[in-house]
Amino acid sequence: MCLQPNSFCQRCQRAKIKLLLMILFLITLAFHENFKSSNEKNHSKKNLVTCEQIIRLNTFSKLSSDVESRQIFYIETSYKKSLRGRQCCVIESAVLNSELKPKVLMTANYINLTENSNFCQLVMSYYPHSLEFYTMDTLEILKGTPLEGIERRLTIRNTEHHAVHLSDALRQALVYKYGGFYLDFDVMTLRSLKTLRNFYGIDQFYAGSINFTTSKKPDNCALPEGSQLVNKWLNNGHFHFDAKSRFVWQLMQHLNNTYEMFKGARMAFGPPRVYSVAKQFLNVTHLHNVNSKDLSILPSYAFEAAYDKTSLYFWSGRDRDDSYWEELLRCSYGIHIINSWTKKLVVTGNPKRELYAYLGPKNCPISFSDLNNF
Known about the structure:
Helix content: 25-40%
Low-confidence stretches: 35-47, 206-215
Structural class: alpha/beta
Mean pLDDT: 83
Largest sheet: 7 strands, mixed
Strand order of the largest sheet: 5-3-2-6-9-8-10
Protein backbone atom coordinates (compact mmCIF):
# COMPACT_ATOMS: atom_id res chain seq x y z
CA MET A 1 0.00 0.00 0.00
CA CYS A 2 1.34 3.45 -0.93
CA LEU A 3 1.37 5.68 2.17
CA GLN A 4 2.34 8.82 0.13
CA PRO A 5 -0.08 11.12 -1.72
CA ASN A 6 -1.54 9.61 -4.90
CA SER A 7 0.39 11.90 -7.23
CA PHE A 8 3.67 10.79 -5.65
CA CYS A 9 2.76 7.11 -5.95
CA GLN A 10 1.86 7.55 -9.59
CA ARG A 11 5.20 9.19 -10.29
CA CYS A 12 6.99 6.29 -8.58
CA GLN A 13 5.16 3.72 -10.67
CA ARG A 14 5.93 5.58 -13.87
CA ALA A 15 9.60 5.74 -12.89
CA LYS A 16 9.65 2.01 -12.18
CA ILE A 17 8.06 1.30 -15.56
CA LYS A 18 10.62 3.50 -17.31
CA LEU A 19 13.44 1.75 -15.48
CA LEU A 20 12.11 -1.66 -16.45
CA LEU A 21 11.75 -0.58 -20.08
CA MET A 22 15.31 0.74 -20.07
CA ILE A 23 16.62 -2.54 -18.67
CA LEU A 24 14.70 -4.48 -21.31
CA PHE A 25 16.09 -2.20 -24.01
CA LEU A 26 19.66 -2.70 -22.84
CA ILE A 27 19.21 -6.47 -22.65
CA THR A 28 17.76 -6.50 -26.17
CA LEU A 29 20.59 -4.33 -27.48
CA ALA A 30 23.25 -6.53 -25.90
CA PHE A 31 21.63 -9.64 -27.37
CA HIS A 32 21.46 -7.99 -30.79
CA GLU A 33 25.13 -6.97 -30.73
CA ASN A 34 26.19 -10.42 -29.59
CA PHE A 35 24.14 -12.00 -32.34
CA LYS A 36 25.59 -9.56 -34.90
CA SER A 37 29.14 -10.26 -33.71
CA SER A 38 28.54 -13.99 -33.90
CA ASN A 39 27.16 -13.66 -37.43
CA GLU A 40 30.11 -11.52 -38.48
CA LYS A 41 32.56 -14.11 -37.13
CA ASN A 42 30.73 -16.89 -38.93
CA HIS A 43 30.58 -14.80 -42.10
CA SER A 44 34.30 -14.05 -41.77
CA LYS A 45 35.07 -17.74 -41.40
CA LYS A 46 33.08 -18.51 -44.51
CA ASN A 47 35.03 -15.89 -46.46
CA LEU A 48 38.56 -16.77 -45.35
CA VAL A 49 41.08 -17.29 -48.14
CA THR A 50 41.38 -20.96 -48.91
CA CYS A 51 43.89 -22.98 -50.90
CA GLU A 52 41.25 -23.88 -53.49
CA GLN A 53 40.86 -20.47 -55.07
CA ILE A 54 42.37 -17.73 -57.18
CA ILE A 55 42.49 -14.06 -56.20
CA ARG A 56 42.02 -11.32 -58.78
CA LEU A 57 44.54 -8.53 -58.32
CA ASN A 58 44.07 -4.78 -58.43
CA THR A 59 46.41 -2.82 -60.69
CA PHE A 60 49.23 -1.05 -58.88
CA SER A 61 49.05 2.74 -58.95
CA LYS A 62 50.26 5.72 -56.96
CA LEU A 63 47.15 5.39 -54.80
CA SER A 64 48.36 1.92 -53.79
CA SER A 65 51.51 3.29 -52.17
CA ASP A 66 52.33 3.72 -48.52
CA VAL A 67 54.33 6.66 -47.24
CA GLU A 68 56.88 7.48 -49.91
CA SER A 69 60.15 5.55 -49.69
CA ARG A 70 58.94 3.27 -46.90
CA GLN A 71 57.96 0.33 -49.07
CA ILE A 72 59.58 -2.70 -50.66
CA PHE A 73 58.90 -3.73 -54.24
CA TYR A 74 59.22 -7.29 -55.54
CA ILE A 75 58.62 -7.87 -59.27
CA GLU A 76 57.49 -11.07 -61.04
CA THR A 77 57.84 -10.70 -64.83
CA SER A 78 57.39 -14.26 -66.11
CA TYR A 79 53.56 -14.32 -65.84
CA LYS A 80 53.58 -16.98 -63.13
CA LYS A 81 50.48 -17.17 -60.92
CA SER A 82 52.21 -18.16 -57.69
CA LEU A 83 55.58 -18.02 -55.93
CA ARG A 84 57.96 -20.88 -55.13
CA GLY A 85 58.71 -21.87 -51.56
CA ARG A 86 62.03 -20.02 -51.31
CA GLN A 87 60.45 -16.90 -52.81
CA CYS A 88 57.71 -17.15 -50.19
CA CYS A 89 60.38 -17.37 -47.50
CA VAL A 90 61.98 -14.17 -48.80
CA ILE A 91 58.67 -12.30 -48.74
CA GLU A 92 57.78 -13.57 -45.27
CA SER A 93 61.16 -12.52 -43.89
CA ALA A 94 60.48 -8.99 -45.15
CA VAL A 95 57.03 -9.00 -43.54
CA LEU A 96 58.51 -10.09 -40.20
CA ASN A 97 61.81 -8.20 -40.13
CA SER A 98 61.90 -5.14 -42.40
CA GLU A 99 59.40 -2.93 -40.53
CA LEU A 100 58.06 -2.06 -43.98
CA LYS A 101 55.13 -3.35 -46.02
CA PRO A 102 56.16 -5.48 -49.02
CA LYS A 103 54.38 -5.03 -52.35
CA VAL A 104 54.58 -7.90 -54.84
CA LEU A 105 53.88 -6.77 -58.41
CA MET A 106 52.89 -9.50 -60.86
CA THR A 107 52.60 -9.52 -64.63
CA ALA A 108 49.72 -11.98 -64.16
CA ASN A 109 46.37 -10.44 -63.21
CA TYR A 110 45.56 -13.03 -60.55
CA ILE A 111 47.31 -15.33 -58.10
CA ASN A 112 46.53 -19.04 -57.89
CA LEU A 113 46.64 -20.57 -54.40
CA THR A 114 46.19 -24.13 -55.63
CA GLU A 115 49.69 -24.41 -57.11
CA ASN A 116 51.90 -24.31 -54.02
CA SER A 117 51.04 -24.92 -50.37
CA ASN A 118 53.79 -22.59 -49.12
CA PHE A 119 52.40 -19.78 -51.24
CA CYS A 120 48.86 -20.40 -50.06
CA GLN A 121 49.94 -20.32 -46.41
CA LEU A 122 51.87 -17.09 -47.01
CA VAL A 123 48.83 -15.41 -48.54
CA MET A 124 46.41 -16.69 -45.90
CA SER A 125 48.69 -15.52 -43.09
CA TYR A 126 49.70 -12.03 -44.24
CA TYR A 127 47.53 -10.80 -47.11
CA PRO A 128 46.32 -8.05 -47.27
CA HIS A 129 47.07 -6.58 -43.82
CA SER A 130 50.86 -7.03 -43.91
CA LEU A 131 51.53 -7.90 -47.54
CA GLU A 132 50.10 -6.59 -50.81
CA PHE A 133 49.83 -8.21 -54.23
CA TYR A 134 49.11 -6.26 -57.41
CA THR A 135 49.11 -6.79 -61.11
CA MET A 136 51.01 -4.10 -62.97
CA ASP A 137 50.62 -2.09 -66.14
CA THR A 138 54.23 -2.16 -67.32
CA LEU A 139 53.72 0.58 -69.92
CA GLU A 140 52.25 2.89 -67.29
CA ILE A 141 55.12 2.24 -64.87
CA LEU A 142 57.74 3.04 -67.52
CA LYS A 143 55.81 6.05 -68.84
CA GLY A 144 57.47 9.39 -68.22
CA THR A 145 60.92 7.90 -67.60
CA PRO A 146 63.93 7.51 -69.91
CA LEU A 147 62.94 3.84 -70.23
CA GLU A 148 59.52 4.58 -71.72
CA GLY A 149 59.14 2.37 -74.81
CA ILE A 150 61.85 -0.09 -73.76
CA GLU A 151 59.30 -2.87 -73.25
CA ARG A 152 58.23 -2.57 -76.88
CA ARG A 153 61.85 -2.94 -77.99
CA LEU A 154 62.25 -5.98 -75.74
CA THR A 155 59.08 -7.65 -77.04
CA ILE A 156 59.78 -6.99 -80.71
CA ARG A 157 63.27 -8.41 -80.43
CA ASN A 158 62.02 -11.31 -78.31
CA THR A 159 65.33 -11.37 -76.47
CA GLU A 160 66.49 -14.49 -74.70
CA HIS A 161 66.53 -12.60 -71.41
CA HIS A 162 63.27 -10.68 -71.89
CA ALA A 163 61.92 -11.32 -68.39
CA VAL A 164 65.23 -10.35 -66.74
CA HIS A 165 65.60 -7.18 -68.82
CA LEU A 166 62.00 -6.17 -68.19
CA SER A 167 62.43 -6.68 -64.45
CA ASP A 168 65.66 -4.66 -64.47
CA ALA A 169 63.90 -1.79 -66.26
CA LEU A 170 60.76 -1.84 -64.13
CA ARG A 171 62.62 -1.81 -60.80
CA GLN A 172 64.40 1.42 -61.70
CA ALA A 173 61.21 3.11 -62.94
CA LEU A 174 59.22 2.03 -59.89
CA VAL A 175 61.77 3.28 -57.39
CA TYR A 176 62.25 6.52 -59.33
CA LYS A 177 58.51 7.24 -59.48
CA TYR A 178 57.39 6.08 -56.05
CA GLY A 179 60.50 5.80 -53.90
CA GLY A 180 61.38 2.78 -51.80
CA PHE A 181 63.35 -0.44 -51.77
CA TYR A 182 63.70 -3.01 -54.49
CA LEU A 183 64.67 -6.54 -53.47
CA ASP A 184 65.11 -9.65 -55.59
CA PHE A 185 63.11 -12.77 -54.76
CA ASP A 186 66.27 -14.42 -53.40
CA VAL A 187 67.20 -11.72 -50.85
CA MET A 188 66.13 -12.73 -47.35
CA THR A 189 65.60 -9.82 -44.94
CA LEU A 190 67.22 -10.29 -41.53
CA ARG A 191 66.58 -6.99 -39.73
CA SER A 192 64.91 -3.60 -40.06
CA LEU A 193 65.65 -1.73 -43.29
CA LYS A 194 64.24 1.60 -42.14
CA THR A 195 67.62 3.22 -41.57
CA LEU A 196 68.93 2.56 -45.09
CA ARG A 197 68.52 5.22 -47.76
CA ASN A 198 69.73 5.90 -51.31
CA PHE A 199 72.17 3.01 -51.59
CA TYR A 200 73.59 0.28 -53.77
CA GLY A 201 75.68 -2.60 -52.46
CA ILE A 202 78.96 -3.75 -53.94
CA ASP A 203 79.07 -7.29 -55.29
CA GLN A 204 82.47 -8.06 -53.78
CA PHE A 205 84.60 -7.13 -50.80
CA TYR A 206 87.12 -4.32 -50.53
CA ALA A 207 90.79 -5.19 -50.70
CA GLY A 208 92.21 -7.18 -47.80
CA SER A 209 89.19 -6.81 -45.55
CA ILE A 210 87.50 -10.19 -45.65
CA ASN A 211 88.84 -13.67 -45.15
CA PHE A 212 86.30 -16.20 -46.40
CA THR A 213 87.71 -18.85 -44.10
CA THR A 214 86.99 -16.90 -40.92
CA SER A 215 84.29 -14.55 -42.29
CA LYS A 216 85.96 -11.80 -40.28
CA LYS A 217 84.53 -8.29 -40.69
CA PRO A 218 85.29 -4.92 -39.11
CA ASP A 219 84.21 -4.92 -35.47
CA ASN A 220 81.81 -2.04 -36.04
CA CYS A 221 80.74 -3.37 -39.48
CA ALA A 222 81.86 -0.09 -41.11
CA LEU A 223 84.29 0.19 -43.99
CA PRO A 224 87.34 2.38 -43.36
CA GLU A 225 86.81 5.76 -45.01
CA GLY A 226 87.90 5.72 -48.66
CA SER A 227 88.28 1.96 -48.94
CA GLN A 228 88.66 1.06 -52.59
CA LEU A 229 86.21 -1.57 -53.81
CA VAL A 230 87.52 -4.63 -55.61
CA ASN A 231 84.84 -5.74 -58.04
CA LYS A 232 83.50 -3.71 -60.94
CA TRP A 233 79.86 -4.37 -60.11
CA LEU A 234 77.14 -2.88 -57.98
CA ASN A 235 74.38 -5.37 -57.30
CA ASN A 236 70.98 -4.25 -58.60
CA GLY A 237 69.15 -6.96 -56.62
CA HIS A 238 68.90 -4.82 -53.49
CA PHE A 239 68.79 -1.03 -53.36
CA HIS A 240 66.82 1.96 -52.10
CA PHE A 241 66.24 5.48 -53.42
CA ASP A 242 63.93 8.35 -52.69
CA ALA A 243 61.42 9.25 -55.37
CA LYS A 244 62.78 11.42 -58.19
CA SER A 245 66.38 10.42 -57.43
CA ARG A 246 68.90 12.14 -59.74
CA PHE A 247 71.06 9.03 -59.75
CA VAL A 248 68.23 6.71 -60.80
CA TRP A 249 67.24 9.10 -63.60
CA GLN A 250 70.82 9.18 -64.88
CA LEU A 251 71.00 5.38 -64.63
CA MET A 252 67.80 4.96 -66.67
CA GLN A 253 69.15 7.32 -69.34
CA HIS A 254 72.32 5.23 -69.58
CA LEU A 255 70.38 1.94 -69.75
CA ASN A 256 68.20 3.28 -72.55
CA ASN A 257 71.15 4.62 -74.53
CA THR A 258 73.26 1.46 -74.24
CA TYR A 259 70.59 -1.22 -74.63
CA GLU A 260 71.27 -1.89 -78.32
CA MET A 261 74.93 -2.51 -77.50
CA PHE A 262 74.27 -4.98 -74.68
CA LYS A 263 70.85 -6.43 -75.57
CA GLY A 264 72.23 -9.94 -76.01
CA ALA A 265 73.71 -10.05 -72.51
CA ARG A 266 71.76 -11.23 -69.49
CA MET A 267 73.07 -8.24 -67.52
CA ALA A 268 72.33 -5.62 -70.19
CA PHE A 269 70.70 -3.52 -67.45
CA GLY A 270 72.50 -5.18 -64.56
CA PRO A 271 75.44 -4.70 -62.17
CA PRO A 272 78.14 -3.65 -64.72
CA ARG A 273 75.93 -0.83 -66.02
CA VAL A 274 75.10 0.39 -62.50
CA TYR A 275 78.79 0.43 -61.58
CA SER A 276 79.64 2.48 -64.66
CA VAL A 277 76.97 5.10 -63.96
CA ALA A 278 77.92 5.31 -60.28
CA LYS A 279 81.48 6.29 -61.24
CA GLN A 280 80.15 8.94 -63.62
CA PHE A 281 77.68 10.25 -61.05
CA LEU A 282 80.35 10.50 -58.35
CA ASN A 283 82.98 11.71 -60.84
CA VAL A 284 85.58 9.12 -59.83
CA THR A 285 87.74 6.66 -61.78
CA HIS A 286 87.76 4.04 -59.00
CA LEU A 287 84.78 3.40 -56.78
CA HIS A 288 85.44 3.96 -53.09
CA ASN A 289 83.41 3.70 -49.94
CA VAL A 290 80.81 6.49 -50.29
CA ASN A 291 78.21 7.79 -47.87
CA SER A 292 76.26 10.71 -49.31
CA LYS A 293 72.65 11.86 -49.41
CA ASP A 294 72.27 11.00 -53.11
CA LEU A 295 74.21 7.73 -53.35
CA SER A 296 75.84 5.54 -50.72
CA ILE A 297 77.81 2.38 -51.43
CA LEU A 298 77.37 -0.40 -48.89
CA PRO A 299 79.97 -3.15 -48.40
CA SER A 300 78.98 -6.46 -49.90
CA TYR A 301 78.49 -8.10 -46.50
CA ALA A 302 75.49 -5.81 -45.91
CA PHE A 303 73.54 -8.13 -48.23
CA GLU A 304 76.03 -10.67 -49.62
CA ALA A 305 78.00 -12.38 -46.91
CA ALA A 306 79.66 -14.86 -49.28
CA TYR A 307 79.02 -13.71 -52.83
CA ASP A 308 80.94 -16.17 -55.01
CA LYS A 309 81.16 -18.96 -52.43
CA THR A 310 77.43 -19.48 -52.06
CA SER A 311 77.29 -23.25 -52.39
CA LEU A 312 80.35 -23.76 -50.20
CA TYR A 313 79.26 -21.49 -47.37
CA PHE A 314 75.47 -21.88 -47.45
CA TRP A 315 75.41 -25.64 -48.15
CA SER A 316 78.33 -26.91 -46.14
CA GLY A 317 79.89 -30.36 -46.36
CA ARG A 318 80.53 -30.30 -42.63
CA ASP A 319 78.65 -29.17 -39.55
CA ARG A 320 78.60 -25.50 -38.58
CA ASP A 321 77.58 -24.34 -35.13
CA ASP A 322 75.38 -21.31 -34.50
CA SER A 323 78.36 -19.04 -33.86
CA TYR A 324 79.56 -19.61 -37.43
CA TRP A 325 76.28 -18.47 -38.96
CA GLU A 326 76.00 -15.59 -36.50
CA GLU A 327 79.43 -14.25 -37.39
CA LEU A 328 78.79 -14.74 -41.10
CA LEU A 329 75.67 -12.56 -40.86
CA ARG A 330 76.69 -10.21 -38.06
CA CYS A 331 76.86 -7.16 -40.31
CA SER A 332 74.07 -8.15 -42.71
CA TYR A 333 70.70 -6.46 -43.23
CA GLY A 334 69.80 -9.30 -45.53
CA ILE A 335 71.33 -12.25 -47.31
CA HIS A 336 71.32 -12.69 -51.09
CA ILE A 337 71.19 -16.46 -51.64
CA ILE A 338 71.58 -16.24 -55.41
CA ASN A 339 68.93 -18.50 -56.90
CA SER A 340 70.61 -19.11 -60.25
CA TRP A 341 73.50 -20.74 -58.38
CA THR A 342 71.55 -22.57 -55.67
CA LYS A 343 68.15 -23.54 -57.08
CA LYS A 344 69.24 -27.16 -57.60
CA LEU A 345 70.65 -27.53 -54.06
CA VAL A 346 68.18 -29.33 -51.84
CA VAL A 347 67.11 -27.98 -48.46
CA THR A 348 66.73 -30.98 -46.13
CA GLY A 349 66.19 -28.99 -42.94
CA ASN A 350 69.66 -29.49 -41.43
CA PRO A 351 70.57 -26.16 -39.72
CA LYS A 352 74.20 -27.19 -39.25
CA ARG A 353 74.85 -27.53 -42.99
CA GLU A 354 72.24 -25.36 -44.73
CA LEU A 355 71.84 -21.63 -44.17
CA TYR A 356 68.20 -21.78 -45.26
CA ALA A 357 67.56 -24.43 -42.59
CA TYR A 358 69.27 -22.24 -39.96
CA LEU A 359 67.39 -19.06 -40.92
CA GLY A 360 64.06 -20.48 -42.07
CA PRO A 361 62.41 -21.35 -38.73
CA LYS A 362 63.28 -17.90 -37.35
CA ASN A 363 62.65 -15.69 -40.35
CA CYS A 364 60.03 -17.44 -42.47
CA PRO A 365 58.40 -20.09 -40.24
CA ILE A 366 55.21 -20.42 -42.28
CA SER A 367 56.93 -20.65 -45.67
CA PHE A 368 59.53 -23.05 -44.29
CA SER A 369 56.96 -25.46 -42.84
CA ASP A 370 56.64 -27.54 -46.04
CA LEU A 371 60.09 -28.50 -47.34
CA ASN A 372 58.55 -30.55 -50.15
CA ASN A 373 57.84 -27.28 -51.95
CA PHE A 374 60.85 -25.33 -50.72
